[in-house]
Each structure stands twice: as structure tokens, then as C-alpha cells.
């Protein structure tokens, strides 16, 4: 640090953090052009400087968990396409984490954890003309979280101006679309997701 100061052409502000980790000193120094009135020392280090390291973690997450570093194709266009696919997958998983998984145990999970715990699981998928049924095993530990995320994503996909409505089948089942999000009936042994494509003009997700 002292050797660096000799090359400066003007006075600069330096924020220092004294740390003692694993039995030895670990000092940190941040050189900034922000004045003390503009930004306090602790906020500068914890919110601005450390955020740069977090951005690097996000890049590493996209490279390692979503294989964005696999650009070994012979042509540049093919490598660009593969990088686009990885980037789109990252955007989708971030949206899933932000919209469907907030206030859950996966709210701050990495893309690799979400991919392993919520996407790479065994299930029985049945597709008919009007609905898609996903039946999970009764011992699936992420079934409740998976269903909650599906309800939240379906609610966001609905037109915002559409009022909550219900069809005759929903009323018979006691699963009205006005039911608060996240309601999951635990009486059934196998949690299932029914996605009804048309129910009085809007999309509805029913969990039971």
C-alpha cells in the first residue's frame, strides 16, 4: 500500500478494514473517488465493494451451473448460440427464484441447487387436451415448494386486470381461484399439479 501511494499524482481517499482470520492479519484497502459526505466507509465497503465480488459469483454461477463456458464448437455463431441459451436459462431461473421461490428455503439458492432440487426430479407427466398433470412421489421433499412456485408463476402469467373467477368443476372440488396463493391440501398422499388451460377465459393453477 505504501509503495502504491508513491505513484499517486493527487491525494485519494482510502477505506481500510482490519481483519484477523485463521490466525493471521487480513487487511483490506479500498481506494475511491467518492467523498466522505457522499458515502460512508462501511456502506462503501459492504454494499458497493463487496457487491462486485457478488457479481463475479453470479457470472461463475452461469458458467458452472448452466454450462455457459462450453463454447468449444468450431464456428463462432454456434458458440454464440450456446452462450445465448445459457444466458436465457439463467434469466428464467432468476425469475423463478424471484417470483416463485421468495420466502422459501430456495429464495437465495444458486441455479445449480434449484436445477438439482426442483427441476431434476422424477415425476409422472400426463398431457390431455385441456390440462397437464404432474404427479410427484409422495416422499418428494420439494413437492410443496414446487407446487407453491407453480401457483405463483401461474398467477403472474394471468392478465393483471382479470378478476378471480371459478368454473363449476373448481367449485365442486372446492378449489376456487380466489384461494390465497400457496394453499396446498396435505390430505392427499400424492401432491399433483393440474394446469387448466381454459377456465372461463383465464389460466388457472390448482394444487391438490
Describe this structure in words.
- The chain is of the alpha+beta class.
- The chain folds into two domains: 2-114, no CATH class; 124-207, no CATH class.
- 40% of the residues lie in helices and 19% in strands.
- The protein contains six helices and eight strands.
- It has a four-stranded antiparallel beta sheet with strand order 5-6-7-8, covered by helices on one side.
- The chain is elongated.
- The N and C termini lie far apart (62 Å).
- The relative contact order is 0.08.
- Residues 161-167 and 169-208 have low confidence and may be disordered.
Termini separation: 62 Å
In round numbers, the mean pLDDT is 76
Question: Outline, from the CA principal axes?
Answer: elongated
Please tally the helical runs, counting DSSP H or I stretches of 4 or more residues. 6
Q: How helical, in percent, are the residues?
A: 40-55%
pLDDT below 50 for ≥5 consecutive residues: which ranges? 161-167, 169-208
Radius of gyration: 25 Å
Report the biggest beta sheet as strand number plus sense, adding barrel if it closes.
4 strands, antiparallel
Share of residues in strands: 15-25%
Biggest β-sheet: strands ordered side by side in the sheet: 5-6-7-8
Q: What is the N-to-C order of secondary-structure elements (H for helix, E for strand)?
A: HEEEEHHHEEHHEE
Number of domains: 2
What class do helices, strands and sheet pairing give?
A: alpha+beta
Number of strands: 8
